[in-house]
Write a structure and sequence with these properties.
single chain, mainly alpha, 251 residues, 11 helices
Length: 251
Amino acid sequence: MRPVRWHLWVVVFQVVLVGIATGVMLTVATGGDSKIIWEGALACIICPTAAAAAVVTSKLGGDINTMTTYNLISGLVAALLIPTVFPLIEHVEGVLFISAFLAILYKVFLVLIVPLGCGWWVRHHHHRLHQAIVRHPNLGFYLWGVSLMVTTGMTVRNIVRSDASLSLLLFIAMLSLFICMVQFAVGRFIGRFFHATVNAGQALGQKNTAFAIWVACMYLNPVASVGPGCYVLWQNIVNSVEIWHHRVKGS
């Protein structure tokens, strides 16, 4: 679990996208529906890579170790970017940099660090449980499916409860589709130079959308959470096609 070169380039591209989206909101889309649309886009870009990306990567024949390492890197990058950028575009009364940073870092810790620590503990101190888990290699895939159902339910709830116009919701959904395609494509393009097409594509394209929905509701306009909510659908269509294609190619 060591950082590799494609990790750096994926992080650089993500930071550049965050800078572009932030710059647009500070100069052009400073209010109204245009700002909400760009906030939804920013939530899709700035959030960390999904923990389930390692599961999908293993299904596609990628390197699960370098992907797991990038999960940690991505979480730390998000924990630095979000409390730095969000106060610039949404001034929330009483929310300071350090409190936002610690709150987001706490979420990242629960999602990434705790499961890794539990996995290490089970592997080295509970050998019977470890062997029982290893005998079911698809267990992570089914857990990812459960997580997907929960996130999809959150998305539907946010859309139903939203007072935004249908045209605004559709525009946010289409923009999140465009961002999804760009991130998967650029990630795979970067990976081609390091023989890590699958890993880099999943690292940049598959996002922790539940986390993105939470930060959008917490620090941005709640309607912006529709962006990462719809991103759930788009990224899992891509994942499904990728897994299907990999199985057909391997058969």
